[in-house]
Amino acid sequence: MKAALRLLWSPGKLVASAACGSAKTLLGDWPAESFGGARKAMLVRKSTAGDFEAILAIVNDAARAYRGVIPADRWHEPYMSSAELAQEIADGIGFWAAEDEGRLLGVMGIQDKGDVALIRHAYVATAQQRKGIGAKLLRRVESLADKPILIGTWADAYWAIDFYRRNGFTVVSNEDKDRLLRRYWSIPARQIETSVVLADRRWVKDQDRAAAR
Ligand SMILES: CC(C)(COP(=O)(O)OP(=O)(O)OC[C@H]1O[C@@H](n2cnc3c(N)ncnc32)[C@H](O)[C@@H]1OP(=O)(O)O)[C@@H](O)C(=O)NCCC(=O)NCCS
Questions:
Q1: Nearest CA to ligand 1 atom 37
Q2: Angle of helix 52-62 relative to helix 82-90, nearest 10 degrees?
Q3: What pLDDT, on a 0 to 100 scale, did the predictor assign at position 209?
Q4: Closest C-alpha to ligand 1, atom 6
Q5: What are the chain's domains?
Q6: Ligand 1: residues whose CB is within 6 Å?
Q7: How far is the CA of 45 from the centre of ligand 1 (A)?
Q8: Beta bridge partners of 170
Q9: pTM
Q10: What's the confidence (pLDDT) of residue 40?
Q11: Which residues in the chain land under pLDDT 50?
């Protein structure tokens, strides 16, 4: 687990090699996990520099779900620019990818923040949603963290909240949400106002334990 975390948090290299146009893998000796039966199995694997454009395409395709749902002043197109994605990776987000027959179907990022890990930018291609891909990605990135996990999403993204709840996460109080978003995320005040935070069981248990003291 320790080695997993060390390898996971090396996204700077991904940006560096993407900038040089190299497709050098950051996987190292990471085993990819496969799912599926008779047809070629779907893999969930660490992203490589060569995945950069595919990650961007999936984010911007899946983020169409937000259009007309999240506050209009928060929507922009494309939802994420190439420069923003490069910055997110440079800031420590490691992306994992679901791949089927050489095609990326979904991506999920994880970012180490010291005492917690954040799940960032979870997106499954629109045509591939509700087939269990998000849950597989989530289980994989969760298995990499030996600490409590937090997730921030738009308060209006009811489907994402439902997805995380079904996968064991709990929406934290408004007060905790404001505190956590300020502490672990770098987002504008308006985004804090229009977001929710979900926490995993470990975080909830730690809070309960602290409150009982
Ligand atoms: C949220 C997301 C990553 C989940 O991935 P997924 O592969 O679709 O999820 P799974 O198939 O593992 O789980 C499906 C469950 O998620 C929820 N869900 C996902 N998409 C939904 C939708 N369009 N409407 C309602 N519920 C939805 C439901 O609980 C669903 O269960 P159901 O199909 O039995 O009702 C994906 O739907 C997505 O990319 N959505 C758009 C972008 C987004 O909201 N990202 C979250 C950013 S934090």
A1: 129
A2: 110
A3: 96
A4: 134
A5: 44-212 (3.40.630.30)
A6: 62-63, 65, 122-124, 129-135, 153, 157, 159-160, 162-163, 166
A7: 20
A8: 199
A9: 0.88
A10: 61
A11: 1-30, 38
